[in-house]
Amino acid sequence: MKILVTGFDPFGGEPMNPAIAAVNQLPDKIAGATIVKLEIPTVFGKCATVVRRAILTEQPDVVLNIGQAGGRAALTPERVAINLDDGRIPDNAGQQPIDQPIQADGAAAYFTQLPVKAMARAIRAAGLPSSVSTTAGTYVCNHIMYQVQYLRATEFPQLRAGFMHIPFLPSQVTTRPGQPSLSLADDVRGMTAAITAIVERDGQGDVATIEGTLN
After folding, report:
1. CA-to-CA distance for 91 and 201, rounded, in angstroms?
2. Which of helix, strand or coil describes residue 133?
3. How many CB atoms lie within 10 A of CB 118?
4. Catalytic residues (predicted)?
């Protein structure tokens, strides 16, 4: 199995992004799967072009996109992406789409093919906080998750794809009192556990654990 794992470059004035920092520290092999690492731009549209090119070149079985979710305390595999760009801040190219569809002919939403409940369970088994998320937001994280699902629907039907958010790093919260964070080493450990679950659940679907929320 080959898994393409992507991480965004720094954005919003931050000197680093834990997403690409953690991706770059992943092992080259996890549970027997080959890990291909790719930095992608925090830019609406362009990030999808970069990932599509990598899919054509690498022919991965799975694409797992990683992004930063400042304010979250856990690693959160995402269950669904919606067909909406609504930027709270401009991207790294200065674009700030407001209430715009990502693909005019795309579905209103796409669900991941990855075993998000098994991923969350594996991360918790590694001693780290994790839960399944049902909102990837409306910024570039949701954008790339949706775009890869659209590529799957229109060009690469054999592909399985999904997204996972990770928290701030401790260095990012020194001026953000009360904000949760997770070390880079823990990010890597949690992502490795999640990828291991993807490999081990290959062909079996997800596990039936309780991951729902009340709000």
Report:
1. 35
2. strand
3. 22
4. 78, 141, 165
**Geometric angle at alpha carbon 192, from 39 and 81, rounded to 5°:** 60
Query: In the chain, where are the structural domains located?
Result: 2-200
CATH architecture of 2-200: 3-Layer(aba) Sandwich (3.40)
SS (H, E, C) 25-50: CCCCEECCEEEEEEEECCCCCHHHHH
| Helix (H/G/I), strand (E/B), else coil: 5 | strand
CA distance 66 to 206: 20
d(CA 200, CA 50): 28
Residue range 167-209, pLDDT digits in tens: 999 999 999 999 999 999 999 999 999 999 999 999 999 999 8
Q: Which residues pair with 37 in a beta bridge?
A: 5
* C-alpha span between 108 and 146 (Å, rounded): 10
Residues forming the active site: 78, 141, 165
Tokens 């794992």 belong to which residue?
Answer: 5
Contact 67, 163 (CB under 8 A): yes
